[in-house]
Each structure stands twice: as structure tokens, then as C-alpha cells.
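Checklist before submission:
- one chain only
- standard amino acids only
- sequence pasted in full

Submission:
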Amino acid sequence: MERHLSLMVPGAAATGRYIDVFAPFNHERIARVEAADTAVVEQALSTAAALHADRSGWLPVPERIAILDRLATAMQAEAEDLAREAALEGGKPLIDSRIEVARAIDGIRLCIETLRTQAGQVIPMGINTASLGRTAFTMHEPIGVVVAISAFNHPLNLIVHQVAPAVAVGCPVIVKPAEDTPLSCFRFVEMLRKAGLPDIWCQALVVDELAVAEALVTDPRVGFLSFIGSARVGWMLRSRLAPGARCALEHGGVAPVIVAPDADLDDAVPKLVKGGFYHAGQVCVSVQRVFAHASIARELAQRIADAASRLVVGDPTIEATEVGPLIRPTEVDRVDQWVREAVEAGAGLLCGGQRISDTCYQPTVLLNPPADAKVSTQEVFGPVVCAYEWDDIDKAIEQANALPYAFQAAVFSTNIDTALHAYRHLAASAVMVNDHTAFRVDWMPFAGLRQSGLGVGGIPYTMHDMQIEKMIVF
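Returned file contents:
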């Protein structure tokens, strides 16, 4: 049944503008969502700024903990519905959407744990003449109005990572989900309000014009911007932030994997297949470039291709589906063009290379595509894994590091010296040893470097960024 969603901005007048939401698998319209204009943005910002300015009205920590606890309980009770809705609107297979929901619920509880354990610090005093007779320590305060701009690929868990920390630390938050996947966000905000958060503390909206989004982000009342999306948009928005506004940016990567000749291929292949084709490759740390020693590269690539060929591609709401659609038909066109260009330039096509429909693309493995091909230099964000042969590990690492992106990387080896060598020399914020590049738990730091982002994600780290440490000196 098609849903109709109104703006979640208390006091805002209806705009009469709407965004249609389509299921990525069959491109059927599943919802219409009212779109905000500049007047709605002004209403949301005015409300949020007034909340932060009224320090006597800040929500106390015990109340925030109680709200989050009730929210986690409610989400657990509706977990299957949340997973099916996320799969329907985002295209991630149901088997993986269930995991996303479980992570989202755990993320709420992680906010509570962090609130209960975080503390300020004692600043040394009495250690010279000037500081004699003084005591100093810090405590935490909310940084201000948080604006969260989110991406489509994890329609519930990304929202949790951006909104729940803001609620936990006491910041008023305005969230703009991706226009392709607003349903999980709006439902999450509704559940947050039912759990006891006053409506004005968390507002949600979508826009149909970039200028409206820019007006929201660049307003001087914004204290912190949390942005997950393309590098082009993220860096542009950062350049237009008002003086004093802080931000965290999470963009994409072109994740490299080094596979040494002594690697256990029986262990590596299923992990690389999962890391490469999970959510049809639409993950910012998806396995994309696999650099394998020449003695094993062809065997490894063929084994990945054989496994990829057996993956079930189709309707993400069906239990058996392992790879779903791309988010839009235009993305299928783009991925197909990139693969064809690579093959025409000499890449070996080991499997895939064809569209299944207007919305789905075959899991594809390429062997030795040219170093300057788009699949070698840009984030594919589709179900494509590239394998490259090497004879010298340092030259392989040099190629892995040659791009202006750096996020998570991996190395497969049974030799600890090889693993440590790759760890030291790979340009990455995290290096996985004998695991794929997309590994993540939500309490660990998660950071894009170079053009891949700014700041550190992960719920405890986001909560830290959304607060200031305020010092008192007696």
C-alpha cells in the first residue's frame, strides 16, 4: 500500500510539494512524501535553535536514557517490519536488512552505555605558582543544533548513527534522509517521539531542491553537520558552513585488498565475495580492488567469480535473495558502461558483465583491468570486483594507495610480518587482517581519509563530536 508522509516539523505549514518514492527492484511507487521549502527549513531551525538556547529546558540525562531505552524496546518488537520496509525502499536483501535492524537497535543501546560511562577529565592544577590553590575539571555539554544529511544505502542504521547520538547528548536535531529512502527515517523519528522525545527535539524533512538543503546546512544556527553521501556534495557543503560550525563527512572509498601468496584462499574467497557483493556493492567500504600475488591471482579471481555466479539476484524482500537491485536504473546504466569500457580496454571478464533488468546487474568479476579504467580509479558502488596481479607487494601497495581516497583496507596472509607490513604501508584508517574491507561494528572508529571523509564515525565518537568539554576552574 502506498504511504503518504507529511513533514515532521512542528508548526510548519503544508507546502503542497511532494517527492515520489519508488521501490528500486520493480520501480513501483511506494510512497509520496511532502517536500520542505525554505519556510519549513526556517521553522525547523528556529525551533531547534530556541531549544538549545534555553539551557534551563535541556533534557536531563536520565530522561534521555529512558527515552532511548523505550525506543530500543519498541524497535525490537517491530524488528521484522522495520527490516522489510528497509529492504523494500532501499533494495538491500531481507537477510541483510534484518542484520541492519539488529545493528540499529544495538546502536541505540550503545548510546545509553556511552552516556553512562563517559566522563570529563581532571586538568592538573597546583603544579606551579600560578595554579596553586586551584582545581579544574571538565564536563560535557551539547554542541548545539545538529543537522544530519543521510545516504540511501543503510536507510535505518545510518539514521540511528546520526540521530541517536544527537538525542543522547541533548542536541536538537534536524534530519534529512536521502530522497530515495525516507520511509525508515520517518518511521524511526515517529518511534522516537512515541518513546517520549518531545516532537520539537527531533525534526525530519526531505527536499526537492538543492538550494533548500543548502539553506538548512549553511545557516549560522547550525552547530554540527553530520553528512553521509557523495564527496562532491559533502566537500561543497563543508566549504559553505557558517563560521564556528563543526562537521563530520563520510564519503566513499575504492577499498583495496592485498592477498599474499600464503593466504588461505578457502577462508578468503567467501569473505571477499560477501564484502564485494553485499548490498550489490553499494557500500562505502565495499571490496572493489583485490591485489593478489601472480602465483594465485587467476585462481583467486576465478574462485570469486564462480561463487559470485551462484549468488541469487532479485527481489530484496524474498528470503532467498542474496543480491538486490541498484538504487536507480541510471546506476545500472552507469555500472554497465564502466564494465564495458574496462573489458574493451583489455580487462578479463570472468563472470557477469550484463544487466539482468532495468534495476539489477549481474555480480561481475574483472581480471587485470587497466590502472586508469574507471573501475580501477573511482568508486563503482555496484556489484563489481576487480582483481590485479602483482609480483612485488610494495608496488601493489603503491597502486592501492595511488588514489585520492582512503578508507578501510584489508590484507590476507598467514604470515604476521606480511600482515604488519601491509598495515604499516596501506593508506587507510583501518586495515582488516584476514577479513574483508566492509567489516564494522558500531562502537569502533569509522573514518574516511583524504577525499573519503573528515572526522571519525562510530557511535561513541559521534557522541564525542556532538559535545563540547566545558572546563570549570575553582
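Reviewer check: The chain has a mean pLDDT of 97.
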